[in-house]
């Protein structure tokens, strides 16, 4: 949910609301609220509209890296490829990544507990 965490932070920082964003981008407010509450990443075209509204790069919204920050080789391209997939496949990819991250975090905690 890095994308939405960064969007929400940017809205607060700029004194804007989700409704402001909906009106400016043409994305229905119910859609935005649903995406945020369910952690669903928007389609690429919608993500670009949101980034433009917030005056931020899509890379920043997707990764949290400051503009000009560098991603490991190919990660940015991969992110664009994922965002170009139909929503149902994006959800599968993001859910899989979240599961892998949670598993890795749990294993790291176990390892520290065993050696700590």
Question: What can be said about this structure in brief?
Answer:
The chain has helices at 2-13, 18-25, 29-38, 44-54, 58-63, 75-83, 87-115.
Q: What structural category do the secondary elements indicate?
A: mainly alpha
Percent of residues in beta strands? under 5%
Average pLDDT over all residues: 85
Low-confidence stretches: none
Biggest pleated sheet: none
What is the string of helix and strand elements? Answer: HHHHHHH
C-alpha-based Rg, rounded: 16 Å
Q: Assign a percent range to the helix content.
A: over 70%
Number of strands: 0
Q: What would the principal axes of the Cα set say about the shape?
A: globular
Number of helices: 7
**Gap from first CA to last CA:** 31 Å
Describe the structure.
Helices cover 73% and strands 0% of the residues. With 116 residues, it is mainly alpha-helical. It is globular.
Keywords:
116 residues, single chain, 7 helices, mainly alpha
What secondary-structure arrangement, pairings included, does this model have?
Layout: H1 2-13, H2 18-25, H3 29-38, H4 44-54, H5 58-63, H6 75-83, H7 87-115
């Amino acid at each position: 949910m890095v994308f939405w965490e960064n969007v929400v932070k940017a809205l607060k920082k700029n004194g804007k609301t989700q409704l402001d964003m909906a009106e400016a981008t043409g994305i229905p407010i119910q859609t935005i609220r649903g995406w945020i509450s369910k952690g669903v990443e928007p389609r690429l075209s919608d993500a670009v509209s949101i980034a433009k509204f917030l005056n931020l790069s899509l890379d920043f919204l997707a990764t949290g890296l400051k503009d000009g920050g560098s991603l490991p080789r190919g990660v940015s391209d991969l992110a664009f490829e994922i965002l170009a997939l139909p929503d149902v496949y994006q959800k599968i990819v993001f859910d899989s990544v979240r599961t892998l991250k949670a598993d890795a975090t749990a294993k790291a905690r176990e390892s520290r507990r065993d050696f700590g």
